[in-house]
Each structure stands twice: as C-alpha cells, then as structure tokens.
Specification:
Elements: E1 2-5, E2 20-23, E3 26-32, H1 47-64, E4 72-79, H2 85-93, E5 103-108, E6 118-125
Pfam families: Ribonuc_L-PSP (PF01042)
Family: Belongs to the RutC family.
InterPro entries: RidA, RutC-like_sf, YjgF/YER057c/UK114
C-alpha cells in the first residue's frame, strides 16, 4: 500500500515528487533543503541555521506521518563543501539520541538545487 504524505509545515515540492511516501510501514522522505515553508524563502544565513531549517522541515514531514526522529533508520546528507561537515553534523546530531541514531552517509556533491549548501533525505520505519 502506498500513501502520499504532505504537510503545509514543510516546503511544497518544487518538481514532480512528493514530500514523502509511506509504503507499508516505511516512510521515504524526499530530500529537503532550507526553504522556510511559511515565507517560501531560502534560509541561507549560515550553515548551522540552514541545517536547522532542513531538519525542521524533515521533522514536520515525520510528524505529518505520526512519526518522530527516533523512527528514522537511514539518512543521506548531501553537502556542497565537506569543510561544513562538523557544523552540519553538530546540528543534525542534536535531533537524535546518539545511541539509537540512524545509519547515514554524507556525500560532497558539486552542486545542489537552488545552490544550497545542504540537502538531507530520510527513511523512517514504524
């Protein structure tokens, strides 16, 4: 069974995809960037603020599916500059209990949508 998950508390998709798809007991969350869902503006003040906005968008999508960060089993972090890793990791890590944190990879890429510095996708299980 496939169910589309949407919320106005996270940015609307900017292409032919959905915020998240629930298939059986697994939630697949599309990559989120630092759009403020209220204003539609990108939050690019600094890397920590940008990462916090990304995480808040992910949190809103998880909540729309009646889940939380403790349900996340896998994260993928795309960053435009590996020199930002420690600041991104600090903000990201504040949303998880280190003992039960999900599996994850972090990949430096040449460019991200809208020229942002970080994009994160997640998979969560009920």
């Amino acid at each position: 069974m496939k169910k589309i998950i949407t919320t106005t508390n996270a940015p609307a998709p900017i292409g032919p995809y959905n915020q998240a798809v629930l298939a059986n007991n697994t939630l697949y969350i599309s990559g989120q960037i630092a759009f403020n869902p209220t204003t539609g503006d990108l939050v690019l003040n600094d890397i920590k603020t940008e990462t916090k906005q990304v995480m808040e968008n992910l949190k809103a999508i998880l909540e729309a599916a009646n889940l939380a960060f403790n349900h996340v089993v896998k994260s993928t972090i795309f960053i435009s500059d590996m020199n930002n890793f420690s600041d991104i990791n600090e903000v990201y890590g504040s949303y998880f209990d280190e003992e039960t944190a999900p599996a994850r990879e972090t990949v430096e890429v040449a460019k991200l949508p809208k020229n942002v510095n970080v994009e994160i996708s997640m998979i969560a299980a009920m």
